[in-house]
Structure formats: C-alpha cells, structure tokens
Amino acid sequence: MGSERILVSTDRRLSVVDITEKVQNAVPPDLQGTCTVFARHTTTGITVNEAESRLLDDFETALSDIVADEGWEHDSLDGNADSHVRAMLVGPSETIPVMDGDLDLGTWQSVLLVDCDGPRERAIDVCW
C-alpha cells in the first residue's frame, strides 16, 4: 500500500478540472492493480468522464440547475450548503484500474475533480 497527495488549484466557485495527468504522475511505474483517487474535502468530488470542454461546462450547468444556490438550512452556518449537496451527488472518490503503472482508462475517460466551493487549492490523495 502507498499513497501520494496531489494539489490542485481551482479558479471558480463551481469548476470541473481534468486531473488525469497529475494522477498518472502519482502512480508508481510498476503498479499492477488499482488506485483510488480521493478528494479530502466535503465540497469536492471525483468522477471519471470525458474532459471535453463543452461537456464540462454542461456538467457545471447541470449541477447548478439541480441544486439551488440558496435556501438551505446549513447556509446559516457557513453559507455553502449548495456546495456540500453538489459534492454529495458526485461522490468523493473513484477507483481506477492500473496496468504496468498506467491508468487503464477508456478511450475518452479522464479523472475529473469537481470543486463546488472554490476557488481554492485542493488536496487529493492517490492511494494504491
């Protein structure tokens, strides 16, 4: 077992960032098996999908449409309940197959960080 922490900076409150290269660089070159990519924040998520810019914009729009910005009880505490709810829909981690130290993703698949409460620097653990 091992792990490496990667840092990812985001530039907007709600953004989807392709972190595939950073994850790949964290994986040992001889690894056979799987790695888990885990977001260490309650207002971020990890997913695997296509990193096409229009699709990422569509996903950000969908999260905004599904979860209203205001009107949540948690907002009385720190004003970011929408970010927590959006992150819960995405989930905090993905497990990815690894062959000969390479992420074994499908043709169009990328590892994506979904930041729902940026801009911030986010810590992501890659564990194997």
CATH class: Mainly Beta
* Alpha plus pi helix count: 4
Quaternary state of the chains? single chain
Beta-sheet strand percentage?
A: 35-45%
Radius of gyration: 15 Å
CATH level 3 topology: Jelly Rolls
Judged by helices, strands and strand pairing, the structural class is alpha+beta
SSE sequence, one letter per element: EEHEEHHHEEEE
**Uncertain parts:** none
pLDDT averaged residue by residue: 97
Cα distance spanning the termini? 5 Å
Fourth-tier CATH superfamily name = YjbQ-like
Helical fraction equals 25-40%
How would you describe the shape? elongated
State the strand order across the main sheet: 1-8-3-5-6
Identify the CATH architecture.
Sandwich
Number of strands: 8
- The total tally of domains equals 1
Biggest sheet architecture: 5 strands, antiparallel
SSE layout:
Layout: E1 3-9, E2 15-18, H1 20-26, E3 33-39, E4 44-49, H2 53-66, H3 75-78, H4 81-90, E5 93-99, E6 102-103, E7 110-115, E8 121-127
Antiparallel strand pairs: 1-8, 2-7, 3-5, 3-8, 4-7, 5-6
Structure explained in plain terms:
- The chain is elongated and about 50 Å long.
- It has helices at residues 20-26, 53-66, 75-78, 81-90; strands spanning 3-9, 15-18, 33-39, 44-49, 93-99, 102-103, 110-115, 121-127.
- It has a single domain (3-127), classed as YjbQ-like (Jelly Rolls), CATH 2.60.120.
- The chain has 4 helices and 8 strands.
- By secondary structure, the protein is an alpha+beta fold.
